[in-house]
Amino acid sequence: MNTLQTIAEWLAGEFDNQEQAIADPVWFVHLRLWHRPLPFRVECNPAFLAEQANMLDPENPYRQRVLILQPPSVTNGSDIGQVEYRAFRQPQQVKGAGAHPERLQTLRLEDLLPLPGCILHLSAAGQGFKAEPPPEAKCFFQYEGKTRQVVLGFEVEAQRFRSFDRGVDPETGKGLWGALMGPYQFTKRQSF
Asked: Residue 77 above 80 pLDDT?
């Protein structure tokens, strides 16, 4: 199995951060996170729906996005590869697909929108891999008619996923939400 196949296998699944939320409930909400393989590949590369839900309201998931694992190339500056993020043209179409994968069956490549600047480089890290933005990268997206910025990043191992994603004010760089006090630490509960 090659490196990208290993990363894809480790990403595919349902995760939660129950232990972290119990240990530090002031800073970490109990979340469920899904990385559900899409029913098609993007340019021959594995792609995943990423979606999460607060466990107090599990039927109202949010942050629907697509992660595409891409092999190394001369232009992406990584020996292992990179992760490209895309948005859904109509997020409501796939809302809840983490728990209900049948909602992905009508999805087409044309339903995905590029997110310029939302690329992470992959590298080896301990027993797994980490994905970090290149220097000076800025990832912007539209939400409720406003331009938002997110600083992306994660680490993945066979049974663990750590998310460093955090929203920032595009004007001031001040952290607004997400991993403000360190990464969200997820444990894999089910593989897909």
From this structure: no
